[in-house]
Design brief:
This protein is an alpha+beta fold and 442 residues long.
Length: 442
């Protein structure tokens, strides 16, 4: 049914141009905005998109941090100190626990280089890298989700603004026709062929048209303000014109949403995988870790002079060894962490199913709206055609002075109202198709 929408739209636009040209509404030089222009401006200036992009970059640094554990750890230390002995007699160096108590008075300096390399961890480092990569994939998918939601939001706002914009011009045309009818009724009243009640009724029509124009102008300003929030552009309602929504190439084609291809699905898939790698990482914490280490030191001292203690620096020791770290019992702490990660993974699966069901419902709703607007458009277009036929007949009778001229004006006003309703259904139908296509793009 929607295949006829383009022809109906052409008919409506021709009709709108006809009654505007007949009424002599002057053209005003104004800024012409389109949906594509507004969308591009919103995308370029969106804070949410910029934040989502920075989040992706932040997570890339987490990948670098996780990969750093594959490289050796080198650390240099330098110590210089003055040691004052408080005992008169000689006493050997003593160690108490981890503390070493030296003896004697001297200046002393030491330089040391520490080397440490994790050799075997049974894949723990690999799991940490995978976790960081999954988090980055989730953030990247979130970026496209924000982009998609922004495009749909702009369509909603632009549609509301366009409907208000159309209503303003339609009611301006209705105002001129109502004023014309009011003048007819005044002359008839002065000629004594009608009552002052009919004159008052026409005056109410004029006042109602003025009120409608003020109402729709206020709505139009508000809708432009909402668009301005997303585009960071200033729009003056009196100097702004909106372009019609462009027809879609296949309006009758039923679009299908593959929920598994949506950004939300990719986000949850990445988070679920991240939890799986976290579980594997925690399991490997129960396995031994083997590291290689080495220490190289230089030492120099002198009882009286700091400078001489520096020049006395010489190689002192070098050590190379292997370290094995095997956790035996941690009070079931790691086991609890694994159980928690598994439950969190199950929660993510449920959240994914819920979110994808919501997306499918949204797609079905858009499809229902498209079908509903299609039926409305066909019905309203038929009404507009019948109203046009009636207007033509009444105008012919009016020209032959068989019926009152005001009757032709009334029919013209009725046709404009019916045309506005049909145009509204067309705009809403095209907007629903655009939103469904964006949703189906993934």
């Amino acid at each position: 049914m929607l295949l006829k929408a383009r022809n109906i739209r052409r008919f409506l636009l021709v009709g709108a141009s006809a009654f505007i040209s007949i009424l002599g509404i002057p053209a005003v030089q104004a800024e012409l905005l389109s949906l594509d222009t507004i969308s591009q401006q919103a995308i370029e200036t969106s804070y949410d998109l910029k934040i989502a992009h920075v989040d992706v970059q932040i997570n890339h640094t987490d990948i670098k941090t996780a990969r750093s554990e594959y490289y050796p750890n080198l650390k240099a230390t330098l110590n210089t100190e003055y040691l004052k002995g408080l005992q008169n007699q000689y006493s050997p160096v003593t160690s108490v626990g981890n503390s070493v108590l030296p003896t004697g008075t001297r200046f002393q300096n030491s330089i040391g280089v520490n080397f440490n390399q994790n050799l075997v961890d049974f894949g723990a480092r690999h799991q940490k890298v995978e976790m960081a990569q999954d988090a980055t994939h989730a953030k990247a998918a979130t970026y496209f989700q924000v982009l998609r939601d922004l495009r749909i939001k702009v369509i909603d706002l632009y549609t509301e603004a366009l409907i208000s914009y159309k209503a303003i011009h339609a009611n301006e045309a209705l105002l001129q026709l109502a004023q014309q009818n009011y003048q007819f009724k005044k002359r008839l009243y002065q000629a004594g062929t009608t009552s002052n009640v009919t004159v008052a009724e026409e005056a109410i029509e004029v006042a109602q048209a003025l009120d409608n124009i003020a109402l729709f102008k206020d709505q139009f300003r508000q809708h432009l303000e909402n668009l301005s929030y997303y585009t960071h552009q200033l729009y003056i309602s009196e100097e702004t014109e909106l372009e019609d929504l462009k027809d879609e190439p296949s309006l009758n084609e039923k679009l299908s949403l593959f929920v598994s291809h949506t950004p939300e699905a990719r986000v949850y898939d990445a988070l679920i995988n991240q939890k799986q790698h976290e579980i594997e990482y925690l399991k490997r914490q129960n396995l031994p870790q083997i590291s290689a280490y080495s220490y190289y030191s230089l030492y120099g001292s002198d009882q009286d002079k700091l400078g001489k203690s520096v020049t006395n620096l010489a190689q002192r020791t070098i050590s190379v060894g292997l370290s094995v770290n095997l956790p035996i019992f941690d009070g079931f702490k790691n086991q609890a962490a694994i159980e928690k990660a598994k439950l969190e993974q199950e929660k993510l699966r449920l959240q994914k199913a819920q979110k994808l069901a919501e997306l499918q419902h949204q797609a079905d709703l858009y499809q229902t709206q498209i079908e509903g607007y299609s039926v409305q458009l066909q019905t309203k277009a038929t009404i507009v055609n019948k109203t046009q036929d009636k207007l033509t007949m009444v105008k012919r009778l009016s020209d032959e002075q068989i019926v009152d001229q005001t009757q032709a004006v009334k029919e013209h006003m009725d046709r404009i109202k019916k045309q506005v309703e049909a145009e509204k259904s067309l705009i809403q139908g095209i907007a629903a198709i655009k939103k469904l296509k964006i949703l189906a793009e993934g």
